[in-house]
Amino acid sequence: MIGYVTLGTNDLARGAAFYDALAAEMGTKRMYEWDSAIAWGEAGGAAGIGLMKPYNGEPATVGNGVMVALEAKDSAQVDRLHAAALANGGTCEGPPGPRGEGGFYAAYFRDPDGNKLNAFVMGN
């Protein structure tokens, strides 16, 4: 199950206006906001979407800053998903662990083709 999708941007304010309008139409709102990213959706709801400046500091392009997030049931499953990814040709983009505030626990990895994914759990 997809938990959320992250898209890259070079102009967060411009992108935020666009996604705020879409979110309002869909009856949702911003869940999280920090200097380089905004996420829309509802905790425990359907898949959400995040908009962010690429973590590596390079310009956002199609693919750079794009990531598919897989919602896990607990932190142990995040750990297992990360291990399975690495055992099957994936590469590590960030080991399992807590990220930010609010009990967000995640691991980041790329598939053998270089597509970025993560496994995460909230409120763990």
From TrEMBL:
Domain of life: Bacteria
InterPro entries assigned to the protein according to its UniProt record, in alphabetical order: Glyas_Bleomycin-R_OHBP_Dase, Glyas_Fos-R_dOase_dom, VOC_core
Family annotation (CDD domains): VOC_like
Pfam families in the record: Glyoxalase
The VOC domain, residue ranges: 1-122
The protein's name in its UniProt record: Glyoxalase
Species this chain originates from: Novosphingobium fuchskuhlense
